[in-house]
């Protein structure tokens, strides 16, 4: 399958699908005059109908810590400044649930965020919480901004955070407490994203299903890749940790059915996401709208020259805030955690119908998202349409309903990187994989972690030209059963020998810039 230049791309697909500038600019997809000669070669006419794409593609991060977290240091303004440097459009501040946080931090942090909203009207800023979930581990919680947002957040933390309510153990009563919290959030329009799901093995597959069954419009999915992506980078002297902080082993509350590799990352992504036909695919095979995200989990950022001031060891526990850190220090190559700024390495890119808080939350809830590391793909879209032209085309997160026997064409569009990332190189997308899984319906095994019918339907290797738009299509003939498709991409540096799959990251020798992947959320084809 050849590469397609923009001229042919526009001729076949329509300007709306590819007219947006590089991500991070936060502008709407622009119409383009189809008669303009863009001086790019046409190798393939996709022959597609005009695809709807009325979205602003907005870069963001839902998992960020500040000086109001017990284990972080940055001011709200310092985080915002770093995020703006790296093209972010929206941020959720998710300081840790903690006794000192609930008692002292919620209102002061809210005041800082409101002030930052005034100073940076182009950014969408939420005050959220990294929730210690009863009977589980961590999740990002956030609500639509309102006059009562701080009071509601504080009420939620006081009532449902396991650190404050002593509900952390894996018991039926504590599991019920988590479901009660989800119902509370559902009444108030909140969203929950499960953070680093496999890091400690504490979140059993049945719990994910229970949460989603209880509140599918609240619990929208999980981190496909954790933050702390630089944690496994080789440090001076040869030391180094585990990429994403995934260096743990089973504990007393871990689900015993997880294999040992669950506790490690693969190409920087969680085992749940990276395993073809694994737990994520088992949820999608049930037809669940279960989406993935990526984020920084920023606490202390690699090579940063902002450093923490010395302070009394009990300061945070007394006042719920660390002293403002100071710029001008030496570059931090071995910080306590090894994170990046929002947008610097990990990006969750949302297709929003409008540049607003509601637009981003609706886009996240609908699954109109893709995630990318190191700028590997600047734009990544997937569309599907029925060749009988009786159904309107759908994109990421969508559901295409067709008659049995119809031919279904899927088109994958990617805009390649145009500039170096902060690791110093222009990332090169070496391969895109179109992954197909059969929708088999709700499983009777609530702990299922396998979807054996998941396969790579097609792989495509584009020729690399910085900033170029590339595309390929694949047609599924005479479809008889419902299925979903999703896409992943790689720089091709590390995968199974002779195969396509990502491989486990090496502790202390996992340079994140040398093993880049991107993933889309799925779209579903439902056969009547």
TrEMBL record:
One of its GO terms (molecular function) is 5'-3' RNA exonuclease activity. Residues 229-259 are annotated as: Disordered. Residues 60-135 form the Polymerase/histidinol phosphatase N-terminal domain. It comes from the Bacteria. Residues 235-248 have a biased composition (Gly residues). Signal peptide: none annotated. Gene3D superfamilies: Metal-dependent hydrolases. Pfam families: PHP. This is Polymerase/histidinol phosphatase N-terminal domain-containing protein. It comes from Crossiella cryophila.
């Amino acid at each position: 399958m050849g590469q397609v230049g923009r001229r042919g791309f526009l001729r076949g697909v329509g300007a709306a699908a590819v007219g947006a500038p590089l991500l991070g600019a936060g502008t709407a997809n622009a119409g383009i005059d189809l008669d303009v000669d863009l001086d790019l070669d046409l190798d393939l006419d996709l022959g597609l109908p005009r695809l709807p794409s009325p979205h602003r593609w907005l870069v963001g991060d839902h998992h960020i810590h500040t000086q109001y977290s017990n284990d972080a240091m940055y001011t709200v303004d310092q985080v915002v400044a770093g995020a703006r440097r790296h093209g972010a459009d929206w941020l959720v501040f998710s300081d840790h649930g903690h006794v000192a946080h609930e008692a002292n931090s919620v209102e002061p942090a809210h005041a800082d965020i409101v002030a930052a909203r005034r100073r940076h009207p182009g950014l969408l800023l939420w005050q959220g919480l990294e929730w210690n979930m009863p009977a589980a581990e961590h999740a990002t919680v956030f609500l639509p901004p309102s006059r009562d947002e701080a009071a509601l957040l504080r009420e939620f933390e006081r009532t449902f955070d396991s650190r404050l309510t002593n509900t952390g153990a894996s018991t039926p009563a504590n599991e019920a407490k988590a479901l009660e919290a989800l119902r509370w959030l559902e009444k108030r329009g909140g969203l929950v994203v499960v953070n680093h799901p496999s890091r400690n093995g504490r979140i059993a597959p049945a719990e994910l299903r229970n949460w989603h069954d209880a509140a599918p419009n609240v619990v929208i999915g999980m981190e496909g890749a954790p933050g702390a992506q630089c944690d496994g980078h080789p440090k001076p002297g040869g030391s180094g940790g585990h990429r994403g902080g995934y260096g743990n082993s089973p504990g007393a509350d871990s689900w015993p059915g997880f294999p040992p590799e669950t506790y490690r990352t693969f190409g920087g992504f969680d085992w749940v996401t990276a395993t073809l036909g694994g737990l994520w695919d088992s949820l999608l095979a049930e037809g669940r709208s279960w989406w993935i995200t990526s984020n920084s989990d920023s606490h202390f950022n690699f090579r940063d020259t902002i450093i923490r001031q010395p302070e009394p060891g009990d300061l945070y526990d007394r006042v719920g805030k660390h002293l403002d850190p100071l710029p001008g220090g030496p570059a931090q190559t071995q910080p306590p955690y090894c994170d990046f700024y929002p947008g610097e390495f990990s990006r969750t890119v949302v297709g929003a119908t409008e540049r607003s808080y509601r637009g981003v939350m609706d886009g996240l809830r609908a699954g109109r998202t893709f995630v990318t590391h190191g700028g590997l793909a600047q734009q990544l879209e997937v569309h599907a349409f029925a060749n009988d032209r009786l159904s309107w085309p759908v994109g990421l997160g969508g559901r295409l309903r067709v008659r049995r026997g119809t031919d279904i064409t899927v088109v994958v569009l990617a805009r390649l990187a145009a500039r170096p990332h902060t690791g110093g190189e222009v990332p090169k997308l070496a391969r895109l994989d179109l992954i197909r899984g059969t929708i088999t319906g709700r499983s009777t095994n609530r702990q299922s972690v396998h979807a054996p019918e998941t396969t790579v339907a097609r792989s495509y290797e584009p020729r690399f030209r910085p900033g170029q738009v590339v595309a390929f299509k694949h047609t599924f003939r005479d479809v008889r059963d419902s299925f979903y498709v999703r896409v992943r991409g790689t720089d091709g540096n590390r995968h199974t020998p002779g195969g396509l799959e990502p491989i486990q990251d090496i502790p202390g020798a996992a340079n994140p810039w040398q093993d880049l992947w991107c993933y889309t959320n799925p779209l579903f084809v439902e056969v009547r």
